[in-house]
Amino acid sequence: MAAFDQLRGEGYTWTQVGGGTYVASGVPDRSMAVAQTGPILDLPQSTCGVSKRARRAIEGVRVLPASHSLAKAFRTYEPAVDLFPVNLWARVAGRVLRNAPRSLYGQGSPGGYQPLRKAIAEYVGSARGVRCDAGQVIVTSGAQQGLDLVARILLDPGDTVWMEDPGYPGASFTLRAAGAKLVHVPVDDEGLMVDSARKLAPAPRLAYVTPSNQFPLGVTMSLDRRLALLKWAVKSGAFIIEDEYDAEYRYFGRPMAALQSLDRSGCVVYIGTFTKMLFNALRLGFIVVPQRLVPAFEATRSFVDRHPPTLDQAILAEFILEGHFGHHVRRMRQTYAERASVLRDAAAKRLNGLVDVVEPVAGMRTIAWLNTDASDIAIVERGRSLGLELTALSEFAVRNSHPPALILGFAACNASELRRGVGVLATALESKRTRGKNAS
Length: 440
Ligand SMILES: Cc1ncc(COP(=O)(O)O)c(C=O)c1O
Hints:
The chain is an alpha/beta fold. It has two domains: 87-325, Type I PLP-dependent aspartate aminotransferase-like (Major domain) (Aspartate Aminotransferase, domain 2), CATH 3.40.640; 330-439, Alpha-Beta Complex (Aspartate Aminotransferase, domain 1), CATH 3.90.1150.10. It has helices at residues 2-10, 28-32, 52-58, 86-99, 114-128, 142-154, 169-177, 194-200, 223-236, 294-304, 310-321, 324-350, 376-385, 415-439; strands at 13-16, 20-23, 137-140, 160-165, 181-188, 191-192, 206-209, 239-244, 268-273, 285-288, 355-357, 365-370, 391-392, 405-409. The strands form three sheets. Strands 3-10-9-8-7-4-5-6 form an eight-stranded mixed sheet, with helices on both faces. Strands 11-12-14-13 form a four-stranded antiparallel sheet, with helices on one face. A two-stranded antiparallel ribbon has the order 1-2. Helix 5 (114-128) crosses helix 11 and helix 13 (376-385) crosses helix 14. The protein binds pyridoxal-5'-phosphate. Residues 77, 142-144, 168, 170, 210, 215, 243, 245, 273, 275, 285 line the site of pyridoxal-5'-phosphate (PLP).
């Protein structure tokens, strides 16, 4: 009886008094489901509701996939999350959250949480020679938001920007979204070629550079180039964005101080990030802005997203002040140097003659120049189909092409994954070589 009641109650059966119980002609689940409406309409671009400005901005943008798994060889954009001291972080976080005054639950300052700004100013002063006080530090949601704020505040639509080529697409997209006209300047083994840039566009408003570890070639900008760039900026009243996303990881020689440390006239905006020094999901970074621009940055920040989450900033501040951050960075520097040498040793054994893997001076990735006829894109596609996370150098070049090469990240993977990756890469390279020969 209970079963009959339930079936009737849910509409699977119907009952005629004195006549019996019958199976319903329509299954109720079907009538509860949303009707299929057919394929989503593929609206023509002009009517799909996205503004022209936004369409220009998002054209060609590649959205990085969320990392659902630990990195595979050769992910480039992630530090070693496998070695992040999770328990220590949790202890610091727990203590900060338990003891935080209620004032930290209210509205924060657009420049960021003051103790964190102070800790950052001290850190970049001693580690990178950056000259600033805490008031010039604006805490951001990673380096990417720093770039976005700089573009909003320093650029008008149509302004010209010198952009490294090959260069960091995240910077190009942001600058282009602000309406900038990008001038793609070649890079050699001393960094951005300032003389070529001046010939290409003598009066830009801004230059974007990665002097400590050029993205993606990995060269360090020479002192001569730094001075030439600064001289030009001062003379023409332009600004320089110095993006130091992973300057802490340097494996040879004494690190060269930041370009900002040479700047006496306040034309350099320095960008740093904790996403590569700690972990990506933290989404905390910072910019150091010239004193006279602080009010503009704070005002703009206040209507963009007001400020980063204060409690997260407080946890990070404590992590730095207790010395854990410095300790972690030193440990990672050692680990990455070891991982880089695992990669090079494995490549020397398994990829001998197929690629030249450059010994990295700094950072979390290196270049592997290809000695095959195949394009780097073809190798990347083959490698991806075999489960590798590969990137081609040519993906980052707009006008100035280089010989074909792969960008190999080594920081995010442990030694066995790197060795496995090199084995798979050997297969990808061999298959292309064989196919290339068969085709010719
Ligand atoms: C050169 C460069 N700048 C900036 C960023 C962005 O860093 P964040 O993740 O902190 O926004 C990256 C990220 O890979 C980068 O490679």
